[in-house]
Amino acid sequence: MPMVGxxxxxxxxxxxxDAIRQxxxxxxxxxDTATMYGNEAEVGQALRDSGLDRRQxxxxxxxxxxxxxxxxxxxxxxxxxxxTDYVDLWLVHWPPAARAVNPVWHEFLALRDEGKTRAVGVxxxxxxxxxxxxQASGVAPVVxxxxxxxxxHDPQVLAANRERQxxxxxxxPLKGTNLNDPVLAEVAAAHGVTPxxxxxxxHIEHRIPVIPKSARPDRIAANLxxxxxxxxxxxxxxxxxLSRR
Length: 245
Ligand SMILES: NC(=O)c1ccc[n+]([C@@H]2O[C@H](COP(=O)([O-])OP(=O)(O)OC[C@H]3O[C@@H](n4cnc5c(N)ncnc54)[C@H](OP(=O)(O)O)[C@@H]3O)[C@@H](O)[C@H]2O)c1
Fold this sequence. Notes:
alpha/beta; globular
């Protein structure tokens, strides 16, 4: 999974298509969508029109809570809308009601074994809920996609997921951040970048894949332009400390 993906929540219709095309042109090779976002067709069209080979782009989509019990139909509908015969990662978007947790996961594993998705994971799961999946199936989700940002940084949650071989993927990295924070402004000035780039780079320093969304071409490009600088351990620690304010 490329460390930086393009988030697509609220990117629909022709404006959504344009943003996804711009993201692919800017170099993103990881797109995060969901049945719930209503934009899988736009993602698929943008991918085809980009001229990129399907295998060059890591595609994630998600099962919404309202489709619990209809996992197969939902994934097949996603594949049709995306115009592909597999996704790279399929996530349970939110934990279902307790009685459905394990049946949903068994169905996910069956569809993975059929090759309709290369990997399966979850989103918005607690450690307790992940443990319940592991206990029932012996298989841990490869990813737990959860909100993450300096303000939400929680080393214990990160470590607990990692102990179970679960990769924490961070969503809403910018929305969850005060981009006017003086610490971010100072670090950004030291590197000649923006506070948003500092926040996204901070995720990378923590080995947390991150999926910023933007509808603006300049921000789409800047949010991927993170590999020409790095944060010192001291700078990363100052940003970690924003969670304790
Ligand atoms: N699994 C889940 O339950 C879940 C939940 C929420 C989100 N997600 C995924 O995570 C992705 C990202 O999360 P998100 O969309 O909630 O929030 P986000 O990416 O943290 O923030 C998006 C907001 O930040 C603005 N922005 C983007 N780049 C910026 C920059 N460089 N400087 C200043 N502002 C900037 C955007 O405005 P403009 O568009 O105007 O630039 C938009 O208002 C989603 O798109 C979705 O794919 C998953």
